[in-house]
Amino acid sequence: MEESILETPDGGSLALYSYGNPNAPGHRRILVVGGAFLTALIYRPFAAALSARLGQDWTVDLYDRRGRGNSTEQPADYSMGTEIADVALMLEHTGVQNLFGHSLGGAVVLNAVRSFLDPGASRGNGHVPSRLAVYDPAINLDSSIDTGWLMAFSEDVEAGRNSRALARMQRGMKFSPTLSKVPAPILAALLAGTSRTKAGKLSRAMLPSGVGELRAALEESQPASSFSVLPPNTHFMAGAKSAGYFRSTARKLHDVVPGSTYLETPKGIHGSVPAAFGALLDDIGDYFARS
After folding, report:
1. Sequential DSSP letters for 151-204
2. Is 135 in the same domain as 159?
3. Which structural domain, as residue segments, surrounds residue 43?
4. To the nearest whole number, what is the mean pLDDT of the chain?
5. How much is the pLDDT for 179?
Protein backbone atom coordinates (compact mmCIF):
# COMPACT_ATOMS: atom_id res chain seq x y z
CA MET A 1 0.00 0.00 0.00
CA GLU A 2 1.24 3.49 -0.89
CA GLU A 3 0.03 6.63 0.90
CA SER A 4 0.19 10.17 -0.44
CA ILE A 5 -1.27 13.56 0.46
CA LEU A 6 -2.97 15.73 -2.16
CA GLU A 7 -3.39 19.46 -1.66
CA THR A 8 -6.82 20.82 -2.61
CA PRO A 9 -7.46 24.20 -4.32
CA ASP A 10 -9.32 25.46 -1.24
CA GLY A 11 -6.32 24.94 1.05
CA GLY A 12 -7.23 21.51 2.40
CA SER A 13 -5.60 18.13 1.89
CA LEU A 14 -6.75 14.60 1.13
CA ALA A 15 -5.07 11.34 2.11
CA LEU A 16 -4.87 8.81 -0.72
CA TYR A 17 -4.10 5.11 -0.30
CA SER A 18 -3.28 2.89 -3.28
CA TYR A 19 -3.35 -0.91 -3.29
CA GLY A 20 -1.86 -3.10 -5.98
CA ASN A 21 0.34 -2.18 -8.92
CA PRO A 22 1.51 1.45 -8.47
CA ASN A 23 2.11 1.75 -12.22
CA ALA A 24 -1.28 0.45 -13.35
CA PRO A 25 -2.77 2.46 -16.24
CA GLY A 26 -6.02 4.36 -15.76
CA HIS A 27 -8.22 1.68 -17.31
CA ARG A 28 -6.93 -0.74 -14.66
CA ARG A 29 -7.43 1.56 -11.68
CA ILE A 30 -10.56 1.90 -9.54
CA LEU A 31 -11.25 4.85 -7.22
CA VAL A 32 -13.32 3.81 -4.19
CA VAL A 33 -15.41 6.48 -2.46
CA GLY A 34 -16.60 5.45 1.00
CA GLY A 35 -19.77 6.20 2.92
CA ALA A 36 -20.72 8.35 5.88
CA PHE A 37 -19.20 7.88 9.36
CA LEU A 38 -16.44 5.64 7.99
CA THR A 39 -12.75 6.35 7.42
CA ALA A 40 -10.53 4.89 4.72
CA LEU A 41 -9.11 2.64 7.43
CA ILE A 42 -12.42 0.74 7.54
CA TYR A 43 -12.35 0.28 3.75
CA ARG A 44 -8.74 -0.88 3.54
CA PRO A 45 -9.58 -4.61 3.78
CA PHE A 46 -12.08 -4.15 0.95
CA ALA A 47 -9.58 -2.23 -1.20
CA ALA A 48 -6.85 -4.82 -0.60
CA ALA A 49 -9.21 -7.73 -1.30
CA LEU A 50 -10.59 -6.14 -4.49
CA SER A 51 -7.05 -5.44 -5.70
CA ALA A 52 -6.08 -9.08 -5.08
CA ARG A 53 -9.29 -10.26 -6.76
CA LEU A 54 -8.52 -8.25 -9.92
CA GLY A 55 -4.88 -9.30 -10.13
CA GLN A 56 -1.40 -7.80 -10.18
CA ASP A 57 -2.09 -5.50 -13.13
CA TRP A 58 -4.64 -3.47 -11.17
CA THR A 59 -4.64 -0.72 -8.54
CA VAL A 60 -7.46 0.19 -6.17
CA ASP A 61 -7.26 3.80 -4.95
CA LEU A 62 -9.03 4.84 -1.76
CA TYR A 63 -9.09 8.20 0.01
CA ASP A 64 -10.27 9.78 3.22
CA ARG A 65 -13.04 12.21 2.40
CA ARG A 66 -13.13 15.55 4.22
CA GLY A 67 -13.44 15.39 7.99
CA ARG A 68 -12.00 11.93 8.51
CA GLY A 69 -8.74 10.03 8.84
CA ASN A 70 -5.69 11.90 7.59
CA SER A 71 -7.62 14.39 5.48
CA THR A 72 -8.46 17.90 6.66
CA GLU A 73 -11.79 18.93 8.16
CA GLN A 74 -14.80 19.96 6.12
CA PRO A 75 -14.43 23.63 5.10
CA ALA A 76 -16.90 26.23 6.34
CA ASP A 77 -18.63 26.27 2.95
CA TYR A 78 -18.71 22.47 2.64
CA SER A 79 -21.33 21.07 0.27
CA MET A 80 -21.77 18.33 -2.30
CA GLY A 81 -19.78 20.64 -4.55
CA THR A 82 -16.78 20.13 -2.25
CA GLU A 83 -17.08 16.37 -2.64
CA ILE A 84 -17.39 16.65 -6.42
CA ALA A 85 -14.28 18.83 -6.64
CA ASP A 86 -12.39 16.29 -4.53
CA VAL A 87 -13.40 13.43 -6.83
CA ALA A 88 -12.24 15.50 -9.83
CA LEU A 89 -8.90 16.10 -8.11
CA MET A 90 -8.48 12.37 -7.47
CA LEU A 91 -9.25 11.55 -11.09
CA GLU A 92 -6.78 14.13 -12.33
CA HIS A 93 -4.03 12.95 -9.98
CA THR A 94 -4.35 9.19 -10.46
CA GLY A 95 -5.64 9.02 -14.03
CA VAL A 96 -8.16 6.45 -12.80
CA GLN A 97 -10.92 5.57 -15.27
CA ASN A 98 -13.20 3.51 -13.01
CA LEU A 99 -15.31 4.73 -10.09
CA PHE A 100 -17.03 2.85 -7.28
CA GLY A 101 -19.11 4.39 -4.50
CA HIS A 102 -20.69 2.86 -1.40
CA SER A 103 -23.71 4.34 0.41
CA LEU A 104 -23.20 8.10 0.72
CA GLY A 105 -20.07 7.63 -1.37
CA GLY A 106 -22.43 6.36 -4.05
CA ALA A 107 -24.26 9.68 -3.88
CA VAL A 108 -20.93 11.48 -4.22
CA VAL A 109 -19.79 9.61 -7.36
CA LEU A 110 -23.20 9.78 -9.07
CA ASN A 111 -23.49 13.52 -8.44
CA ALA A 112 -19.88 13.97 -9.54
CA VAL A 113 -20.25 12.12 -12.85
CA ARG A 114 -23.53 13.87 -13.56
CA SER A 115 -21.79 17.23 -13.05
CA PHE A 116 -18.84 16.17 -15.23
CA LEU A 117 -21.28 15.55 -18.07
CA ASP A 118 -22.61 19.11 -17.80
CA PRO A 119 -21.13 21.10 -20.74
CA GLY A 120 -20.77 24.09 -18.42
CA ALA A 121 -18.80 22.25 -15.72
CA SER A 122 -15.63 24.07 -14.63
CA ARG A 123 -13.87 20.90 -13.49
CA GLY A 124 -14.02 17.25 -14.33
CA ASN A 125 -14.68 17.44 -18.05
CA GLY A 126 -12.69 14.71 -19.73
CA HIS A 127 -12.78 12.58 -16.59
CA VAL A 128 -16.08 10.77 -17.06
CA PRO A 129 -15.25 7.20 -16.00
CA SER A 130 -15.20 4.26 -18.38
CA ARG A 131 -17.01 2.24 -15.74
CA LEU A 132 -19.12 3.47 -12.84
CA ALA A 133 -20.68 1.28 -10.14
CA VAL A 134 -22.44 2.01 -6.85
CA TYR A 135 -23.64 -0.22 -4.03
CA ASP A 136 -26.59 0.87 -1.85
CA PRO A 137 -26.42 4.53 -3.00
CA ALA A 138 -27.80 6.98 -0.41
CA ILE A 139 -29.69 9.60 -2.44
CA ASN A 140 -32.99 11.25 -1.61
CA LEU A 141 -34.82 10.59 -4.88
CA ASP A 142 -38.22 12.24 -5.35
CA SER A 143 -38.53 12.85 -1.57
CA SER A 144 -38.35 9.10 -0.91
CA ILE A 145 -36.41 9.64 2.33
CA ASP A 146 -38.02 11.41 5.29
CA THR A 147 -35.37 13.88 6.48
CA GLY A 148 -37.47 15.43 9.22
CA TRP A 149 -35.08 14.01 11.81
CA LEU A 150 -31.98 15.76 10.41
CA MET A 151 -32.50 19.06 12.24
CA ALA A 152 -32.92 17.42 15.66
CA PHE A 153 -29.97 15.14 14.83
CA SER A 154 -27.82 18.20 14.12
CA GLU A 155 -28.89 19.87 17.36
CA ASP A 156 -28.08 16.73 19.36
CA VAL A 157 -24.61 16.53 17.83
CA GLU A 158 -23.93 20.20 18.53
CA ALA A 159 -25.04 19.74 22.15
CA GLY A 160 -22.89 16.64 22.59
CA ARG A 161 -25.88 14.31 23.01
CA ASN A 162 -24.12 11.65 20.96
CA SER A 163 -26.13 8.58 21.90
CA ARG A 164 -29.39 10.42 21.25
CA ALA A 165 -28.03 11.64 17.90
CA LEU A 166 -27.03 8.11 16.89
CA ALA A 167 -30.47 6.84 17.89
CA ARG A 168 -32.16 9.49 15.73
CA MET A 169 -29.98 8.54 12.78
CA GLN A 170 -30.59 4.82 13.25
CA ARG A 171 -34.33 5.33 13.37
CA GLY A 172 -34.33 7.92 10.56
CA MET A 173 -32.19 5.93 8.13
CA LYS A 174 -33.72 2.57 9.12
CA PHE A 175 -30.41 0.74 8.80
CA SER A 176 -31.82 -2.13 10.86
CA PRO A 177 -35.49 -3.18 10.55
CA THR A 178 -35.38 -4.19 14.23
CA LEU A 179 -33.48 -1.29 15.80
CA SER A 180 -35.38 1.34 13.80
CA LYS A 181 -38.55 0.32 15.63
CA VAL A 182 -37.05 0.59 19.12
CA PRO A 183 -38.31 3.71 20.99
CA ALA A 184 -35.71 6.50 20.78
CA PRO A 185 -34.94 6.75 24.53
CA ILE A 186 -34.38 2.99 24.80
CA LEU A 187 -32.30 2.90 21.63
CA ALA A 188 -30.17 5.80 22.89
CA ALA A 189 -29.53 3.90 26.11
CA LEU A 190 -28.54 0.79 24.15
CA LEU A 191 -26.19 2.78 21.95
CA ALA A 192 -24.64 4.47 24.98
CA GLY A 193 -23.36 1.03 25.95
CA THR A 194 -21.24 0.93 22.78
CA SER A 195 -19.38 4.16 23.54
CA ARG A 196 -16.25 2.33 24.67
CA THR A 197 -16.02 -0.05 21.72
CA LYS A 198 -13.81 0.75 18.74
CA ALA A 199 -16.81 1.09 16.44
CA GLY A 200 -18.67 3.18 18.99
CA LYS A 201 -15.77 5.59 19.40
CA LEU A 202 -15.41 5.95 15.64
CA SER A 203 -19.13 6.68 15.17
CA ARG A 204 -19.04 9.38 17.82
CA ALA A 205 -15.85 10.94 16.46
CA MET A 206 -17.44 11.15 13.00
CA LEU A 207 -20.69 12.79 14.13
CA PRO A 208 -19.73 16.43 13.36
CA SER A 209 -18.66 15.51 9.82
CA GLY A 210 -21.74 13.31 9.51
CA VAL A 211 -24.03 16.29 10.00
CA GLY A 212 -22.55 18.06 6.99
CA GLU A 213 -22.42 15.09 4.66
CA LEU A 214 -25.92 13.84 5.47
CA ARG A 215 -27.34 17.29 4.83
CA ALA A 216 -25.37 17.61 1.58
CA ALA A 217 -26.57 14.23 0.30
CA LEU A 218 -30.08 13.89 1.68
CA GLU A 219 -31.61 17.20 2.75
CA GLU A 220 -32.51 18.28 -0.78
CA SER A 221 -34.65 15.88 -2.77
CA GLN A 222 -33.51 15.20 -6.33
CA PRO A 223 -35.67 13.94 -9.20
CA ALA A 224 -34.59 10.52 -10.39
CA SER A 225 -34.83 11.80 -13.97
CA SER A 226 -31.94 14.22 -13.35
CA PHE A 227 -29.57 11.23 -13.29
CA SER A 228 -30.70 9.95 -16.70
CA VAL A 229 -27.58 11.52 -18.27
CA LEU A 230 -25.28 9.01 -16.53
CA PRO A 231 -23.22 6.72 -18.79
CA PRO A 232 -25.15 3.76 -20.25
CA ASN A 233 -22.87 1.16 -18.68
CA THR A 234 -23.45 2.42 -15.12
CA HIS A 235 -23.88 -0.54 -12.76
CA PHE A 236 -26.33 -0.19 -9.87
CA MET A 237 -25.99 -2.70 -7.03
CA ALA A 238 -27.84 -3.34 -3.79
CA GLY A 239 -27.92 -5.87 -1.00
CA ALA A 240 -31.03 -8.03 -0.72
CA LYS A 241 -30.78 -7.66 3.06
CA SER A 242 -30.00 -3.94 3.08
CA ALA A 243 -32.63 -1.40 4.11
CA GLY A 244 -35.44 -1.30 1.56
CA TYR A 245 -34.84 2.25 0.37
CA PHE A 246 -31.31 1.38 -0.78
CA ARG A 247 -32.72 -1.26 -3.12
CA SER A 248 -35.53 1.05 -4.20
CA THR A 249 -33.09 3.87 -4.95
CA ALA A 250 -30.78 1.63 -6.97
CA ARG A 251 -33.70 0.26 -8.99
CA LYS A 252 -35.15 3.74 -9.65
CA LEU A 253 -31.79 4.94 -10.91
CA HIS A 254 -31.41 1.88 -13.10
CA ASP A 255 -34.86 2.54 -14.56
CA VAL A 256 -33.96 6.09 -15.65
CA VAL A 257 -30.43 5.44 -16.97
CA PRO A 258 -30.68 3.85 -20.45
CA GLY A 259 -28.32 0.92 -20.89
CA SER A 260 -27.50 0.62 -17.19
CA THR A 261 -27.52 -2.66 -15.26
CA TYR A 262 -28.89 -3.65 -11.86
CA LEU A 263 -27.72 -6.48 -9.60
CA GLU A 264 -28.96 -7.48 -6.17
CA THR A 265 -26.64 -9.57 -4.02
CA PRO A 266 -28.80 -12.27 -2.33
CA LYS A 267 -27.00 -12.25 1.03
CA GLY A 268 -25.69 -8.70 0.83
CA ILE A 269 -26.21 -6.23 3.68
CA HIS A 270 -25.34 -2.55 3.74
CA GLY A 271 -22.02 -3.24 5.43
CA SER A 272 -20.96 -5.91 2.92
CA VAL A 273 -18.59 -3.53 1.12
CA PRO A 274 -16.12 -2.57 3.86
CA ALA A 275 -16.44 -6.14 5.14
CA ALA A 276 -15.25 -7.42 1.74
CA PHE A 277 -18.12 -9.91 1.54
CA GLY A 278 -16.98 -12.61 -0.91
CA ALA A 279 -19.99 -12.86 -3.23
CA LEU A 280 -20.31 -9.09 -3.55
CA LEU A 281 -16.57 -8.74 -4.07
CA ASP A 282 -16.82 -11.16 -7.00
CA ASP A 283 -19.76 -9.22 -8.46
CA ILE A 284 -17.82 -5.94 -8.28
CA GLY A 285 -14.64 -7.49 -9.65
CA ASP A 286 -16.51 -9.10 -12.55
CA TYR A 287 -18.06 -5.79 -13.56
CA PHE A 288 -14.81 -3.82 -13.60
CA ALA A 289 -12.75 -6.58 -15.22
CA ARG A 290 -15.24 -7.01 -18.05
CA SER A 291 -13.69 -6.07 -21.38
Report:
1. HHHHHHHHTT-HHHHHHHHHHHHTSSTTGGGS-HHHHHHHHHTTTTSHHHHHHH
2. no
3. 2-142+221-289
4. 90
5. 67
